[in-house]
Amino acid sequence: EETRSWKKMINVAVSGAAGMISNHLLFKLASGEVFGPDQPIALKLLGSERSIQALEGVAMELEDSLFPLLREVSIGIDPYEVFQDAEWALLIGAKPRGPGMERAALLDINGQIFAEQGKALNAVASRNVKVIVVGNPCNTNALICLKNAPNIPARNFHALTRLDENRAKCQLALKAGVFYDKVSNVTIWGNHSTTQVPDFLNARIDGLPAKDAIKDHKWLEEEFTETVQKRGGALIQKWGRSSAASTAVSIVDAIRSLVTPTPEGDWFCTGVYTNGNPYGIAEDIVFSMPCRSKGDGDYELVKDVIFDDYLRQRIAKTEAELLAEKKCVAHLTGEGIAVCD
Ligand code: LMR
Hints:
alpha/beta, L-2-Hydroxyisocaproate Dehydrogenase, Chain A, domain 2, 2 domains, six-stranded parallel β-sheet, three-stranded antiparallel β-sheet, 12 helices
């Protein structure tokens, strides 16, 4: 006899569902560790013609796992079908970069995908769908996606920078000799690229400013910053492919940060639309910034952050990069002719 009370089922769409990241992510989504133990879900998996066999295999494995919360699994290659009534869209499918490439080299190839998927979301998804763009270059892909989905609030689109936040926390904890849970208030500003700015000015370790806990400020400015900026590339060198397991974990973290209240005094970062931001960052781009959530899927930007010249200069650099990327995809955002440097 059914005695538990279940919430209403939610539809979660995942693109790139036959890929490596999804292979880690889907089983976490189905297990309840993301949306909670009382939240039934339907997984709607988007693949490509090339991956459809593998996608069928993924669906079979999900079914064989007998997850009590997983009420439906459907697969398809048409985003207009798969995104129907989606309340979450996790957009992972894209061409990944290889060794020695910068993520921006993928702008044109992947930009097309996100224009198409933005249109599909606009047409068939829930009017309040939350979209997390993972495929690179994720900030500009998220911008392309939201521009093609004018009927969905722009603030609902995220570019995944949680992986960078986690990487930064790991490095700070290692250097300070503390467990990572002592590291809080970490922001990655800007682009998910090598210009990203891991913010050690506002970060805290055991409640103290990170700069008090770590006296080696040269390390913070140089080694720490560069390690975090280049971590994705370093992993590609090791694996011969981009990170998958830690990316999936960070997607889980990113969603959980939006569906659970942010702990008092802390924040998380995510790449979001800049209109109305209090930091003086250029409007009309997708930029990673510090946020808090009440746990309702929405968020607000954190106001009490401090800046110094170092931070301002670095932020200006990543901002300039995003403005240049935006010019380069004008043909995909409906804003004219692309101008690429
Ligand atoms: C990462 O940061 O690991 C991913 O964005 C993959 C990449 O291209 O670095």
